[in-house]
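Morning, I've got a small favour to ask if you have a moment. I've dropped the whole record in just underneath, so have a look.
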Amino acid sequence: MAMHFIFSDEAVLLFDFWSVHSPTGMALSVLVILLLAVLYESIKVGKARLLYQALMNLSIPTSQQLIEAADQDSSSTDSLPVSRSPLRWFLCHFGQSLLHVAQVVVGYFVMLAVMSYNTWIFFGVVLGSGVGYYLAYPLLSMT
């Protein structure tokens, strides 16, 4: 196996059954790897969006908010109600954990594809990463 990047239409990607021996097969493989890179970037941006939403929905009240709530409830001696529920926090954290695992798995697949040292596959990963970020970034700013 060559330990430098080569232009070739023959490669074995990720698994033994994914063996490419033709230009058409290489083009389809580059497309699949490009889509994997787009998926990786989408998961990354989705994870950031989920974290942002979790922090906004489950935010810790500021001292000014606590003072205002204490002034409104000055007649009662009960403690201040907590607006966040443990179940909701657990579900957000669990969702983020699943997205993290998916991101790691897809990331390792993309990394192993690049380690085939095929320049076409490398170009597919780079292009897919850029396209994925370009397509997924507006989702992050919609919040």
Notes: The longest helix spans residues 23-57. The first strand starts at residue 11 and ends at 12. The mean pLDDT is 82.
